[in-house]
Every structure is written in C-alpha cells, then in structure tokens.
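Fig. S4 source data, part A: sequence.
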Amino acid sequence: MADPVLHIKDSYFFELPKVLAPATYRSRQDFPEVWVKLDPDFQKWEFGKLYNSLTAMQAALPPKDQARDDWQAWVHSSHDHFTAPFDEFLETKYQQHLADFQVWKQGKVATAKLGEEAGELANAERLRLDDYLNSADVSDPYAGFSLLRQTPEFQAQWRQAQAEAGSYAAVREYQQDESIPEWPQDRIDAYNYHLSGKVLIPQPFGELRNLHEAESSIISQETNWLNRDHFGFAISKFMVIEVAVGLVLVLLFGWLGKRLLSGGAPRGKAWNLLEMFVAFIRDEIARPALDGHHGGEHGDDAHSHDTHTHAGQGHPEHGHIGHGHMDEDALADRIGHATVVKHDRGPSPSQRYTPFLCTIFFFILGCNLAGMLPWVGAPTGTWAVTLALAVVTLLVGAAGGMRQFGVAGYFLNQVPSMDLPWYIGPILKPVIFAIEMLGLIIKHWVLSVRLLANMLAGHMVLLAIMGIAFGSTAAAGFVAADGSVSPWWWLAASLSVVGCALLSLLELFVAFLQAYVFTLLSALFIGAAIHKH
C-alpha cells in the first residue's frame, strides 16, 4: 500500500470537469486495465485463476466455494481491504499466523521457565512455525497454506502465480476472453460516469494498483527475493507537473542567459523581472548567509571581497563600490582604464551557491503557483516533494562542508570550538557531536514539514470555505411557505465566494513567501556547513 502521508493529494490522473473529458467506453474491452482490475467480476475471475494455480502446486486450501466466501467476507470487513485480491487475503493470513506463532512461542518459553526440567526450556526455544501450525492450538483452514508458504521451494512458484493472476497481461486475457459475459449496460454507464473528467497518465514503465497507488514490488520477508514481474516505475500527476516546471525554468533561464551574455542594459519586462529576482537572491540571501565569514577564514580584513582600485575609487563619477555588490569584471568595464587589483582565490561562497539557491527558489515557486491553476495542484503540498527538496539541501551543505574541510573535518566542525579541560573534552564532545548531528537531521526535517504545512493549510482552509457553499446549497432546500428562498442562503453563498477570492490572494502571497523562506533557510544551513563554528 502507498504511504498516505507521502501521497496526500497525488494521483495518476488529471481531473477536469466531466463535460470536458467525458468517458465513452462501450464494453469491458475498451476500459483501461487499471480500472478493470477493480471490477468485482475480474477479481472473481482472478481468484479462480489463482486458486487453480495453487491447487496445481499442492497448496492446502479449503474448498473453492469456502475460500471465495472467506475472501469476500474479509474484503467487506474493513475499508483497508477494499478491492484487495485473493493473494492479499492469503498473505494476510500468513502474516497473522507468524504473529500468532510468536505469541504462542513466548507462552511456551515462559511456561518452560517455570518448570523444573531444564530440557523443556531448550525445546521451547527451538520451536518453529511448523510446530505451531501442526499443533492442536491451530484450527484455521489456511494453516496448511501458511505451512507451505514458508518453504523456500514454494516462494518462487507463489510469486509467479501472483504475477500471472493480477498483472495487466491477465487483465487483457480477461478482456479478450469471449466466453465471459459482457458487463451489463448499467455498470458500464456507472463506470463511464466515474471515469469522466479523469485523464489517465500513460504508464509505460509500470503498473497501477488503482488510480492513486502504483503496483509496488513484492519482496519476500524471508528471502528478500524481489518479484520483478510487479517491479516498475509509475508516473504520477505531480511528477508530470514537476517536469513541466523544470522545463519551463530551463527554457526561461536559457533565454535569460543568452541575453546576459549578449551584454547591454536589460530590456523588456521579462528580462528586468527575472534579473530582479536573481539579484535579490544573490544580494539579500546568498551574500549575507554565505559570505559573512568568508574573509575572516583567510585572514583578510572585512573588505577582502571588495574590489580595490588605484584610480577612481569612491569618486562620484564612478559611484560607491564596496561589499561585493559588483563583480570585478563588470567593475573593470565600468571604470574603463583604471587599474583593478584582483584577488585570485576563486569564487566566493555566494557566487558558488547562488545558482543552486536560484534553482531551489524558482522550482518551489513554480510548484507553488501550479496550485493556483485550475485542475492542476501544487506538488509542494505532498511530503514526498518537500522532503526530497530538504534532502537535496542537506546533501549540498554536506558536500560543500566536505569540500571546505575534508570528510573528517566536516563532521568535526559540527562540534563548536570550546575551551575545555583535557579530562572533560573526551567525555563531553562526543555527546555534543551526537546532539549536533541529530539537530542537523531535525533542522532539515522541519524544513520539509514547514513548506508542506504552509502549502497544505491554504488548500484545507479553501476546502472548508467551499464547504460552506455546499452547505448553503443544501440549506436552499428549506424554503419559506410562499416558496421563496431564505435570505440566509444568499448571505452564506456571498461570503463563500468572497472568502475563496480573498484566500486565493493570500495563497498567491504565500506561494512567494514560502519559496523565499525555504531558500533563505537553505542558504543559512549551507552557510553553517561551510564555515567554522
């Protein structure tokens, strides 16, 4: 099952109004494989195919009718089992037997410890799952299957039978089997209604379990053997949006880069707007966070990164120059023939990391703004995306710190410099190191949760305000005796519309703000990694 935290709003389709993308399937042969897998008739057909395969493998199962009834009762016993196939039912039985065996064995060991015979304790500790399943304490009709399920010889056969029964190939076999009666028209109409408005994303590299979950790889807990027939890579809606945002950034800043290389003053609104953002990230985020201690580490004065001139420095016609707000090459072009003294020590930290910070900022901003578009959604509203961004920041900071101090020096730098007596340092510093490393992980974890919470909160509040409109629609059914609608309905509907409009404006501001906050914190964390504490 997919982790619900990592897939809060993600899906494997784009949702549009039903009128824009109506589904017009006419028979079971026309429906997508992922939808056919959820049909009760297919799952019964899949059950028969799997049951026959297990019977041929001498798997001890109850009679076919009883097994089908037990499986159907299990499916309807919990929402978590909804549309689960027969193989998951058998796997659940096996896992339950494993858990019951551990409890049974612990009871036998505890009883043996109370006894006087020393040999009973050794025998109790050697008990295996076979002993439990063959004991009189087990009356489950699926104990024989679990007994066979644990054997290595049965593993490959069982996984192969699972793959053959529930794969897309099996779905296509079911669709093309002319001996199977066609679905009734009312079912086809109902399926068309549910699929209308859903634009399914093609899956050339994997299979789906349903419209919100990918078919995950099946790994045996006993042998760690991977079933490759279910292995694949599924493309979700947010993946498509992230790729689209990345392509837009490549095209946009590729265009900007060509304009900058051509020289001359910025022209046009797009050029000025993009350069304004880049200059802001460089001057207000990267330089204060990354260059604050750069000069001190090399033993230079506070102006180690300023460009010093022998002619025209500080003169009104050349303007005030200082604090690294102008690149040396650009400065040389501006002052003409003045002699410029350059410090050849490589790019400053802000120059090195500004491209990364710009990438983070604009990517997050693009994903945030995608949530403002109808029928799209913000990828940053899922923890999988925000956590990946935080991990990238952690890795960039670690790589920068190791480049600056070496691998060992980076980890040693996590402990602040302290004047401690020789007999306290070896005891206290390892504890501080463990706390600092834990704090490093927690900081980046909080970085991911902060972005997720802020982006998700706006959507949840917007949903709550829209709920008022739906409640108002229901309230419209309560009319006065003369047939007029209560004025309270118009008030609630007006408040919902105004509230949604105002909240959308707030979300637009939050989209920019959270991109800035994430970029600023990333710069601070990287700065802490590449400078001495």
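Fig. S4 source data, part B ends here. The mean pLDDT is 81.
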